[in-house]
C-alpha cells in the first residue's frame, strides 16, 4: 500500500460500525441497492464528517507550521494542499474511482470552505478587508483621474489638431500648446473633484503640479515626436504617448505627491 492509499483509506479503517470490513460491505450493499455507494445517506454523511475533521486537522497543521517555521511557509503549504485536493477530487477520484461530480464538489466545499474561512479569520480578516477598501479607494481615484485626463486630453487633442491642421504650426509648438491647455483642464478637475480629499493647500499643489506637468510635457513631446518620426499618424502618436505617460507618470505622482489623500 502506497502513501496515497494509506491516507485515502484512513476514514474507511475508522468506520465506527466495524472498521474497514464493515465499511467495504456497506459500500457493496449500497451499490447493489442504489447503483452508487454515496446515495446511502449514512455513508455520505460519514464521509463528509471525515472531510470536516480533515479540514480541522489541516488547520491545526497550518498553525504549527506558522508557529515553528514561518507564516509564509504555512500559507504556501495550505495553497499547495488546496491544489492537490482539487486535483484529487476533480481528476483522480472521478477517473480512477468513479466518483460523481456532485460528490467531488461536496467534498471540496466541506473541506475547503471551513479551512480557508478559519485561516482568513486567524490572520485577522479585518486587515484583509481594509486592504481591499484601500485598493477600492485607489481604483476609484484612478477612474476619476482618468476622467480628468480624458477631459484634458480632449482639450489637448482639439488644440493640437487646430494648431497642426488649421493654423499649420510646427508639430513641437502644437504639442506644447495642446499639453498646456490640457494640463490646465486636468489640474482644475483633479483639484476640485478627482482628488478633492487632498490635504495640501492650493499653492502647495500648484508648484508640485507644475513640476509634474513640465516633465509630462517633455515626455509627451519627445514620445509623440519620436512615434511621428517613425511614420505613425500624429493623433495616434499623441494618444499612445499620452496613455503611457498618464499611467506610469501622471497618476502615481499626482495621487501621492501633488494631491496626497488626508
TrEMBL record:
Lipid bilayer topology: Multi-pass membrane protein
Pfam families attached to this UniProt entry: GtrA_DPMS_TM
Alphabetic keyword roster: Membrane, Transmembrane, Transmembrane helix
Record GO cellular component, one term: membrane
Parts of the chain that traverse the membrane: 44-65, 74-94, 100-121, 142-167, 173-195, 207-228, 234-253
BP term (GO), one: polysaccharide biosynthetic process
Record carries keyword Membrane: yes
Subcellular localization: Membrane
Entry annotated with the keyword Chloroplast: no
Protein origin, superkingdom: Bacteria
InterPro entries: GtrA_DPMS_TM
GtrA/DPMS transmembrane domain location: 150-259
Coiled-coil stretches noted in the UniProt entry, renumbered to this chain: none
Major subcellular location class: membrane
UniProt-recorded name of the protein: GtrA/DPMS transmembrane domain-containing protein
The species this protein was found in: Candidatus Nomurabacteria bacterium RIFCSPHIGHO2_01_FULL_40_20
Lineage of the organism: Bacteria, Candidatus Nomuraibacteriota
